[in-house]
Design goal:
This protein has 190 residues and is an alpha/beta fold. It has helices spanning 2-11, 32-45, 60-69, 132-144, 162-168, and strands at residues 13-15, 19-21, 53-57, 76-80, 92-99, 104-111, 120-128, 147-157, 173-183, 186-189. Helix 2 packs across helix 3 (60-69). Keywords: Cytoplasm, Glycosyltransferase, Purine salvage, Transferase.
Length: 190
Amino acid sequence: MQELKEKILKEGLAIGTEVVKVDRFLNHMLDVEFLERIGKEFRKRFEDCEIDKILTVEASGIAVACLAAQYFEYPLVVFAKKTSPNTMTEDFYEADARSFTKGTVSKFRVSKNLLHAGEKVLIIDDFMAHGEASLALTEIVKQAGGEIIGIGAVIEKGFQGGSRKLRDRGYKVESLAVIREISDGNIIFD
């Protein structure tokens, strides 16, 4: 998506050789009008897919998933929680996801009454790096007996191999902007 690449170059910031900061429009402050176009692009990329639910992770994926939902005729959006709040009293599906950016492992949890066997689920997130978050979400969908229709990422750091891992497992992956390299403060796209 050319418009996204231009926005990353204009408003994003390369930090070192592995981090892209896009907090001016995607994951700290939201450009809602722009994210609507992101949602519309996901619909184009998955136009041949019938979905029952969109699954994402709190917090950065929620806005993107919600804005995409309007273009899929408003399926319910479910987001995995990274902590177990005291309001999560029912059983839940759980999978571990390592964050290489934060150097932590999170336990993603989704209440069992929110995902069901036979549901067609589209996974959408803001970033894909090593693919760990998406792999954890696929595990949760499998635990529920659902069908993974595809995985969408707004920005992919292609050099970290996440989409390759997911495609090797047979998943359809659509990334709207793929970064090939970060070098000397420059972001280079595929």
